Amino acid sequence: MTERAAVILAAGQGTRMRSPTPKVLHKVGGRTLLDRAIDAAEALGCARIVVVAGPHSPQVAAHARGRLGEAGVVFQETPLGTGHAVRAAEGALADFAGDVLVAYADTPLLDAEAVAPLFDARERGADLAVLGFYAADPGAYGRLILGEGETLDRIVEAKDASADELRIAACNSGVLAGPAALLFTLLREVRNDNAKGEYYLTDVVGLARDQGMKVSAVFAAESRVLGVNAQGELAAAEAAFQASRRASALAEGVSMPAPDTVMFAYDTVLEPGVLVEPYVVFAPGVTVRSGAVIRAFSHLEGAEVAAGAIVGPYARLRPGARIGVGAHVGNFVEIKQARLEEGVKVNHLSYIGDGSIGARTNVGAGTIFCNYDGFDKFQTHIGADAFIGSNTALVAPVRVGAGAMTGSGSVITKDVPDNALALGRAPQVEKRGWAAQFRNLKRQGQIQKDKDQT
Ligand code: UD1
Ligand code: CA
What we know:
By secondary structure, the protein is α/β, with parallel strands linked by helices. Helices cover 24% and strands 28% of the residues. Strand 8 (143-146) and strand 9 (152-156) form a beta hairpin.
């Protein structure tokens, strides 16, 4: 296989988003547009990936650097067009002799499968290959002027197109591939005498054809190449992503009576035989094993749910929650950085943060792991077969032994030995007749007040 590199363009201003967040750091399926573009390039086996960033959004450069290192980021000082932007990567790829894939970072649904046909076209002998699509509403997309077979003669930008050309439905996705040397040679010839006064990457097609080279267009589904320029398009991309994830989960044997109300992240793993009730949100990093049930209105992030467990309704699993086989996590329970072993029950109104609960232990309503003193976090560990009374506050660091019990309403500040009962609450006192006496006094006072007023 010819070696591959990718140039990902992310130096545009993204002004149409009207957002303080740079366009390519917005997310679809919980993953930034920029990371999605990098994911696709990695999946295609690109040995080198260069992101072209603009000096106006240092966050984009920092984000790319965090993932690809210093060599993975170059700057386009002024955004003079997509062709100009690709040239910014020339130095970084000076010693690279393979194929370069150019992709825009604002095309979030693009994946390796959609792009692969470009490389097939290269293998069939195309000097350059461009990924196109047929648009339902071609709008502002560049139009493909096709010749015989899969030959592409040139690309005309919408702003420069004639009325006839604007009627063409074949559009440019912005993704193309060709040998590094050829691409950078052609880019040097691109001029900016057009409607936008920009150096268009798309002009390399016409230039290559003028020199008798073979340029091919291959096509992807429109849903894969949707470009994001404004918030409405970001929402449309999210909707398309969700629709496809829901469909694949159903096809893989996940039960979802109301799939349209379930939100997935890019990396959600639901095994066949999982049941997801309505209105569940999967933020990134969730795995749910076969036979588990995620009940309505639950929110999960960075969590693992083992086979046969029941989570929710109205549960919140935060990063580091590990729910064991057959364990139950009920309504208004929040779990963070904590492991629940097999068969644990935490059914009502509790906070379990930083610690562990041993197998079969029952945690009563309103139990709180008091894990934070305003500066540091501390651990709480409960052994197997224990029983935590309702409204127990466990002040970390603390351990409750296997088989131990705590009395309801206890504040537990010291370790509890195995099989002991710990009571950490004020002893109860009774005052006989006190309540009746109190009511009498109050009533007499009220009668006197009413008399004074009349
Ligand atoms: C571009 C294509 C158009 C195609 C459409 C697909 C050109 C000239 N036009 O139009 O044919 O149908 O994408 O979505 O290529 N960027 C830079 N530096 C610049 C300008 C842009 O890095 O100077 C980056 C942007 O950050 C963005 C990408 O290139 O990620 C595309 O730029 P954008 O302005 O969105 O191009 P479109 O008008 O959408
Ligand atoms: Ca665009």
